[in-house]
Design goal:
Blueprint lengths: L6 H10 L5 H7 L4 H6 L1 H15 L10 E5 L1 H14 L7 E4 L13 E6 L5 H13 L2 E6 L2 H10 L3 E3 L10 H14 L7 H18 L8 H9 L3 E7 L3 H13 L6 E5 L6 H4 L3 H4 L2 E7 L5 H14 L5 E6 L5 H23 L7 H11 L2
Parallel strand pairs: 1-2, 1-3, 3-4, 4-5, 6-7, 6-8, 8-9
The structure holds fructose -6-phosphate.
Length: 365
């Protein structure tokens, strides 16, 4: 049966007018994903402590750091690299694949990140790193990865169980930051992580479920309802935009896409001309107070050109002083938006049935 014109828009308008409170969220959030997002500051502190107690020695790997992982476990490496920015003194590379970059040598540190410890791509990277004689560290809750690491005498950074892997983002980010410092790829940022945790606590109060219905996270979620969001990052916010995309995919159960500036201005900008014919696309620009001045100009101009063809458009800016504070600020905002959007849609943010089915089907092959 076809839907009468306008019905979807009316349904979305009804849903968008609903309150976003702990109670309304709890009605859909069967596994407490909201609580895990609100606990981000605690996760930052706990993670720093866990790395410190798991790894006693430092290594000097002049070829840099490779973070090997997939999905919610890989994003920490990308966010850590963004947070280190200009302070990275050696290459830091994130691989989301079955293999390591061809330049991996015994002088490379390979951090294998898998929340479950059973992700086949990450297990393959762990084995390749061993075969190449690279220095290895593992961050996981257990699984095959922990078993192999323990048998090989490879240090294991242990994570607390009971989360969806994507909810362990702060743990994965801090693990990558600390391992980068231990192998000489970046400075030690332990005290900055602690300061970022306190800063994030303030933002939790400002954007969390107890904040007003007109607070930023709730407003953005309402604006994205009924749209296909396209999240645009630049520099420091590029991996944050990707985090938004994956959280909207997995928590809100929606298609969502991402691109970055300045590259977007050389292709996707034109595609937006046909956006209204193709669907209801919304643009979300993730700006940073310290972005390159020309990138800032571009973001403002790009938004002006795209907005007439978008169902909604948002220009959001990082909050905080240090790069870690700024990266985490927009990660928190995106995570909250994805849970609020799930609530407005009446879907449970926790389960990722399609991913589970796919992994089970692959195991049969
Ligand atoms: C699930 C999620 C996924 C997983 C990915 C890899 O919450 O976010 O993207 O992170 O399938 O699994 P792990 O993290 O267990 O290695």
């Amino acid at each position: 049966m076809s839907t009468p014109p306008g019905t979807d828009a009316r349904t979305h308008a009804d849903a968008a007018s609903g309150a976003l409170t702990r109670e309304t969220i709890a009605r859909v959030d069967s596994t407490g994903q909201l609580d895990d997002v609100l606990a981000l500051p605690e996760h930052l502190r706990d993670a720093a402590w866990r790395v410190e107690s798991a790894i006693m020695q430092g290594w000097d790997t002049s070829a840099g750091l490779v973070v090997a992982g997939m999905g919610g476990s890989a994003i920490g490496g990308a966010l850590a690299r963004a947070a280190l920015g200009d302070h990275a003194s050696r290459p830091i590379f994130v691989t989301r694949a079955y293999g390591l970059p061809p330049w991996t040598t015994p002088d490379t540190m390979v951090l294998c990140a898998s929340y479950s410890g059973d992700t086949e791509e990450t297990l393959a990277c762990y084995e390749s790193a061993g075969a190449l004689g690279a220095q290895r560290v593992v961050v996981t809750t257990g699984g095959r990865l922990a078993e192999m690491a323990r048998a090989d005498g490879v240090p294991v950074i242990p994570l607390p169980g009971g989360f969806q892997p994507r909810a362990a983002v702060a743990y994965m980010t801090v693990a990558a930051l600390e391992v980068a410092a231990l192998c000489g790829a970046g400075p030690r940022l332990t005290s900055e992580i602690d300061v970022a945790a306190s800063h994030t606590e303030q933002l939790v109060a400002e954007w969390g479920p107890d904040a007003g219905e007109d607070s930023l996270a709730k407003t953005v979620a309402r604006g994205l309802l009924g749209t296909i969001p396209v999240v645009v990052g630049a520099g420091l916010t590029t991996p944050v935009a990707y985090r938004w995309k994956t959280q909207i995919n997995e928590n809100s159960k929606l298609p969502c896409f991402t691109h970055e500036l300045p590259e977007l201005d050389h292709n996707e900008l034109v595609g937006w001309e046909g956006a209204r014919e193709a669907g209801r696309f919304a643009a979300v620009f993730l700006d940073d107070s310290d972005a390159h001045p020309r990138v800032k100009e571009r973001m403002a101009l790009t938004e002006r050109l795209i907005a007439p063809n978008a169902a909604a458009s948002f220009h959001l800016e990082t909050r905080g002083q240090t790069t870690i504070e700024r990266v985490i600020s927009l990660v928190l905002l995106g995570d909250l938006v994805s849970i609020y959007l799930a609530t407005l849609r009446g879907v449970d943010p926790g389960p990722v049935k399609a991913i589970d089915e796919l992994k089970a089907a692959l195991e049969q092959r």
